[in-house]
Amino acid sequence: MLGFLKRPVVVTADINLNVVALTAMGLLSRLWQMGPRAVVFDEVYYGQYISFYMKRIFFLDGSGPPFGHMLLALGGYLGGFDGNFLWNRIGAEYSSNVPVWSLRLLPALTGALSVPMAYQILLELGFSHCAAMGAALLMLIENALITQSRLMLLESVLIFFNLLAVLSYLKFSNSQKQRPFSLSWWFWLMLTGVACSCAVGVKYVGVFTYLLVLAVASVHAWHLIGDRTLSHVGAAVERGARPSRVGRDRSPISRQIRVLCHLLARAAALLVVPALMYLLFFYVHLILVYRSGPHDQIMSSAFQASLEGGLARITQGQPLEVAYGSQVTLKNVFGKPVPCWLHSHQSTYPMIYENGRGSSHQQQVTCYPFKDVNNWWIVKDPGRHQLVVGSPPRPVRHGDVVQLVHGMTTRFLNTHDVAAPLSPHSQEVSCYVDYNISMPSQNLWRLDIVNRESDADVWKTILSEVRLVHVNTSAVLKLSGAHLPDWGFRQLEVVGEKLSRGYHESMVWNVEEHRYGKSQEQKERELELHSPAQMDFSRNLSFMARFLELQWRMLTVKSDGSEHKYSSSPLDWVTLDTSIAYWLHPRTSAQIHLLGNVVIWASASLATVVYALLFFWYLLRRRRGLRDLPEDSWLRWVLAGALCAGGWAVNYLPFFVMEKTLFLYHYLPALTFQILLLPVVLQHVSDHLCRSPPLRSLFSALVVAWYSCACHVFITLRPLTYGDKSLSPSELKALRWKDSWDILIRKY
């Protein structure tokens, strides 16, 4: 029983020294003197989010899901960062409590690991070790990739997960050919799904690589369905058993079940797992940031009430059900251009507008983006005079007709057939002033609960989203979003919009603050307080409700579309006709620029064109029955193009239709796939187009010379990549890429 103790325990392992060497060089290039101790470019934004995490303050970033921010915050947490730093200026010196090295460590590690990963991807595609080493070397010496990975930025993290998704899928695909449903088969398949979800979780543009992997997997699954060799014989061989005659004669039903198992495994790993991971990112995010913060206002009242402090502190203990006599503030659900509350004040609309149109000269009703006593309204029963809540309270239900009385002026919310001041096709909304002329009040409103579960639903504080439909004209109370002139104090216009014009979220309101009115006297009413039974609104808003709202806000929030000094267009990226000055030392001329290796960028673009021309040439000849490549070489060529050229296309072309400020670093994920394609094209030319040995030797010499040029440019631009050397004005001028390109041509 203990015989195994008589023999030594031996563990054998295959270690690829190429991978070890590439990993070591990648770590050295990314971790060496990791950036200055000052805020560098977009660190000013990411640093704010890290501080919010450290202080558990809620925030919203429209650029992407929270996974990438959480990874950066993890570095701050491990480094002992307390979140106390004012991220307000690029170039500001970090205080002693900011663990700069720890904050920048994760991007540097992911950037370093991308180097051996490029090597592994080309090996899995079936190309030579020489081509794989070439791809890794290009990743190692590409200046822009080095710069971006040495700072507290997310592009290197996104690139890492993009490459991990591709590598995992290739390893899974190769396992499929040998041992389907083995442990390694499941591991790589699941890792593919996890990597795809992480890429999307870092930045929304990660979805492009995810869709690429899904497309390739779909094509492979389609071929799998038609694979007649897929049978239980293969399963028996995998288990080491001898295939029997019975196994060879299995019915088609058994084969169909096996194919179905393959498809279900892929669906679970590539669809279900990423979806669950994506939800997990937001679940952890919402657990971490549970306190109210500066980004609350863009969220709904219900969401704000679920956060600790802020609105939750104000609304704690509010009555849940709105009753006749309730005092309420009404917030517009749409919240654009800014969150605001239904508001009125003593001022009236001018008799004549600037364009010559007349008005009703009634009391102004606006939407005001600040908390104010003039935001309070009283819900009144049209059949009674009381402005207090009875005992017991009579709740307001869907379909009830109500009047809204302005709390401070006691005038009724009104609309009539008079054009709104800035929206002449809509009705003016006012608080009625009786001028004893032939303009009667029209102040009855029907309550329409939009998110009701039944027609008997009660109007609830925060939870109910309602429309107020004018009884006389069927107009709906709506925020137009236009800013009134100075006579309206630049507040937002509120109008009555005909139902026939369609539904819009700007027509929807919700009660945010609520108390039961107890006094008929105006002065006492303004001062009254209440302390009813507490109602914890956070329990009424589930995780899925908060997730869906946060997701919607992130997707619809408008980014700053203004031009930036260093913004650029996608066409500028391919030609490298742009750069970004990331940091300048305040006392010396040391500086960091996001500047690509021009030899690599130009060659990668050329390789993409060459691949496209060769692919269509081969495709045309195959259509005519001429097969220039063996079938295995053709399939390898197509798969490499689908992943590398396709990866470049899906990560580059969408930027042409994006309405956002773009920078050079947006091109880096696409560039990574181009770099992988470059050695593929070089090996293909050497193996299949350079047929004679002398021509092949000449081509190899040219490739070596080309790699030398790329290394020379890397060394030349190194001071701007690492920012560790003071430069004279003449040296700076020489480092402009066009000038250095001319110098390079003259030298070689």
Helix content: 40-55%
Mean pLDDT across every amino acid position: 86
Largest sheet: spatial strand order: 9-8-5-4-1-12
The Cα radius of gyration reads: 33 Å
Class computed from helices, strands and strand pairing: alpha+beta
Low-confidence stretches: 231-249, 529-539
Q: Count up the helices.
A: 23
Q: What portion of the residues fall into strands of 2 or more residues?
A: 5-15%
Detailed description of the structure:
It is a single chain. Helix content is 47%, strand content 12%. α2 packs across α3. The protein folds into 2 domains: 17-229 and 254-283 and 569-735, no CATH class; 317-537, Trefoil (Acidic Fibroblast Growth Factor, subunit A) (Trefoil). The chain is elongated. It has helices at residues 17-31, 43-55, 67-78, 100-124, 129-141, 143-149, 155-178, 183-202, 206-225, 232-238, 245-248, 252-288, 301-305, 311-315, 522-527, 543-556, 570-574, 598-623, 631-652, 668-689, 693-722, 729-734, 737-747; strands at 326-332, 341-348, 363-368, 376-380, 401-406, 413-419, 427-431, 445-449, 466-470, 475-483, 492-498, 509-516, 580-584, 591-594. It has 23 helices and 14 strands. With 748 residues, it is an alpha+beta fold.
